[in-house]
Write a structure and sequence with these properties.
Blueprint (H helix, E strand, L loop, with lengths): L2 H9 L4 H38 L18 H13 L4 E5 L5 H12 L5 E4 L6 H7 L14 E4 L10 H7 L4 E7 L12 H14 L4 E5 L18 E5 L13 E5 L1 H11 L15 H31 L3 E3 L11 E4 L3 H13 L21 E5 L11 E5 L5 E5 L4 H17 L6
Parallel strand pairs: 2-3, 2-4, 4-5, 5-6
Antiparallel strand pairs: 1-7, 6-7, 8-9, 9-12, 10-11, 11-12
Helix pairs in contact: 2-3, 2-9, 3-9, 4-8, 9-11, 10-11
This protein binds pyridoxal-5'-phosphate (PLP).
Length: 428
């Protein structure tokens, strides 16, 4: 770190010992950044190739209103997504309000009463539990007579092939596989492992639909689940593929029949993807996707930096400082409520937006303890931007992710540890 940057850190109130620690931490991980940059380069060219193949022009960046029939820009974007993810079709819409909504229409569009949904990787993400009806919710799949079964992962994180074989039956229509661990403690699945799992599932029941919840995993590896047999991949545009520029939205890519089924659910049977005005988002969707490989790489570097910095101070971090990564989420066990609050304060204070705000723990609906969140983001709640949250209960885990630039995310992480120091933590 050069003198001028060091001075800016110091002027921002970071203690000198911590600045030095951050320099040493970065030196230790620099070699891993080369590998991340190499993957980013590959993915960047993959995205660029799709833009060029589809002859995206300035006129694609325009918009439509009303029904949105023949929205040339929207249709071009979906062709680009399909090419990036090597799928037959794609549905990429601002009318998909979030990742949960994208997953909902993918499931509800492809399941019928009497069908069974199966998860071979244990309990799905929190919000999915409501969709499925594992947690009682109005309008859940359960209310429509769609049943659910799951096989848990083994203690060591391996697939339980016997339980999966036993769990798939004549009713099983769709298998849902969550790539990222989300806010659970199990390992995130690599694309390779997802491929092995899909192969096994298809060997038992070839016509079952394999859907992957791809949230937080896009562009972290050179391949995506759709390269290893997934029939559908689903995600949010305010995470990796929106590149920080998409103001909202979700995507579903996969086999044409299944993507259309989801589109019929998003709009109406018979209308599907033919309608849906783009209302001005085309340009940011295109540009966000174009930026996404590098943005995801920045977030990944930030997560590795944080793991190394906090681990060096004796905190438990998941993933740890050296293990291979398949998503951008980092968990740190902070052990004390005042440290969790300080961490979030440090992230918020280092954000470009609302840096002056102080996050407070609050009673969030659906949680059994108070939750604290930090998100000083351009797009409200966008978790591809530097953001952190954690429930105020033992062991006081904070989950954080994102960072549109590595440099700003790194500063945020250093600032979080600086806040811990102010709250009584003593650097080792
Ligand atoms: C973020 C996420 C979702 C969807 O969440 P939204 O907040 O609705 O966008 C689903 N599954 C996983 C694993 C996620 O990380």
């Amino acid at each position: 770190m050069n003198r001028a940057t060091f001075d800016l850190y110091r002027e921002s109130g970071i203690n000198e010992k911590l600045i030095q620690l951050s320099v040493l931490t970065e030196e230790r991980i620099k070699s891993r950044f080369d590998e991340i940059d190499e993957i980013a380069e590959y993915n960047q060219l993959k995205v660029l190739k799709a833009f060029r193949k589809n002859r995206i022009s300035e006129s694609h960046l325009g918009t439509s209103t009303g029904y949105g029939y023949n929205d040339f820009g929207r249709d071009g974007l979906e062709a680009v997504y399909a090419d990036v993810f090597h799928t037959e079709s794609a549905l990429v819409r601002s009318q998909i309000t979030c990742g949960t909504h994208a997953l909902t229409i993918a499931l509800a569009g492809n399941l019928r009463p009497g069908d069974e949904l199966f998860s071979p990787v244990g309990l799905p993400y929190d919000t999915l539990q409501g969709i499925i009806g594992i947690r009682e919710e109005r309008g859940s799949l359960a209310e429509y007579g769609i049943t659910y079964a799951q096989a848990d992962l083994k203690e060591n994180g391996d697939f339980d092939y016997d339980a999966i074989r036993a769990g798939i039956n004549e009713k099983t229509r769709l298998v849902t596989i969550q790539r990222s661990k989300g806010y659970a403690t199990r390992p995130t699945l690599s694309v390779e492992r997802i491929g092995e799992l899909i192969k096994f599932v298809k060997s038992i029941k070839p016509d079952v639909i394999c859907m992957v919840d791809n949230c937080y995993g896009e562009f972290i590896e050179k391949t995506e689940p759709s390269d290893v047999g997934a029939d559908l991949i689903v995600g949010s545009l305010i995470k990796n593929p929106g590149g920080g520029l998409a103001p909202s939205g979700g995507y579903i890519c996969g086999k044409t029949e299944y993507v259309e089924n989801a589109a019929f659910r998003l709009t109406a049977p018979g209308l599907g993807s033919e309608v849906g005005a783009s209302l001005g988002v085309n340009s940011s969707f295109y540009q966000g996707l174009f930026m996404a490989p590098v943005i995801a790489a920045s977030a990944l570097k930030a997560a590795i930096f944080a793991a190394n910095l906090y681990e060096s101070q004796g905190f438990k971090v998941v993933p740890d400082s050296v293990e291979k990564r398949y998503d951008i989420i980092q968990a740190v066990t902070l052990e004390k409520p005042e440290y969790l609050i300080a961490f979030c304060k440090g992230i918020q204070n280092a954000s470009p937006i609302d840096s002056f705000a102080t996050p407070e723990p609050w009673d969030m609906p659906g949680y059994d303890s108070k939750v604290i969140m930090a998100a000083g983001t351009f797009v409200s709640g966008a978790s591809i931007e530097l953001s952190a949250d954690g429930p105020l209960k033992e062991p006081y885990n904070v989950y954080f992710q994102g960072g549109l630039t590595y440099q700003s995310a790194k500063f945020g992480i250093v600032n979080s540890l600086n806040e811990l120091c102010k709250a009584g933590f003593v650097l080792k």
